[in-house]
Amino acid sequence: GAVVSQHPSWVICKSGTSVKIECRSLDFQATTMFWYRQFPKQSLMLMATSNEGSKATYEQGVEKDKFLINHASLTLSTLTVTSAHPEDSSFYICSARVPGSTDTQYFGPGTRLTVL
Amino acid sequence: QKEVEQDPGPLSVPEGAIVSLNCTYSNSAFQYFMWYRQYSRKGPELLMYTYSSGNKEDGRFTAQVDKSSKYISLFIRDSQPSDSATYLCAGSMDSNYQLIWGAGTKLIIKP
What φ, ψ does residue B83 adopt, rounded to 5°? Predict the structure, then answer.
């Protein structure tokens, strides 16, 4: 149990286009999901906390208009990178919190975004 | 069977003890292995990054990979209460960083 999937696993897009990344909890309902960004060999940087049915909470320095997060159901959260630029190229990872647990998160495999 | 198995704990040890955290994995194609530490309500912090088999040491931390048995370990020497956190292992087949995660082990160091 407790599997989190992400789609796509790798996406290449042109500068100026928008890209949507999906995060799904496959066998449990996740009221809270998290979106992280990671550069090679570096720690994950928390971008935002996504709560089902409400607006996401963004970390300081993360542009909410650029990184749109939607958590419309208990099993799906989406991150849309709008008007992507080469500096947005990174590895994006989501995680989902197990209901009733304050600490346990299950991570998705990540999505590699390359903006040309 | 999950690709990366990790006992969720909690693992409780006294301050100063040597801590051994372990994961097993099933995908023999994994080449890269990582250990992350995550404090409550924070993002995971990369502790150790290793390629293929062998040991890697960094201060009080030692990461060990045994590809023959598909077993990865993280040892913490002279454990401190500040080491109390959740430790996650992850494996990857290539440098594209498609990470397969363990569930994380909650570690509690008692003063």
Answer: -80, -10
CB-nearest to B99 from A41, A103, A109 is: A109
More confident of the two residues A31 and B69: B69
* Paired tokens of B2: 């999950």
Q: To the nearest 10°, report the CA torsion of A88, A89, A91, A97.
A: 20
Residue listed under structure tokens 């346990």: A104
Q: How confident is the model over B85-106, as a mean pLDDT?
A: 83
Q: In sequence order, what DSSP letters do the residues of B39-57 get, joined into one string?
A: -TTS--EEEEEEESSEEEE
Q: Dump pLDDT digits (tens) for B15-60.
A: 999 999 999 999 999 999 999 998 876 778 889 988 888 899 999 9
Task: Say whether residue A28 is in contact with chain B using an 8 A CB cutoff.
Answer: no
Of A43, A103, A112, the CB nearest to B97: A112
Distances (CA, A) of A56 to A9, A35, A36, A79: 23, 10, 13, 11
Using CB atoms within 10 A of its CB, is residue B109 exposed (0-12), middle (13-18) or buried (19+)?
buried
Termini Cα distance of chain A: 37
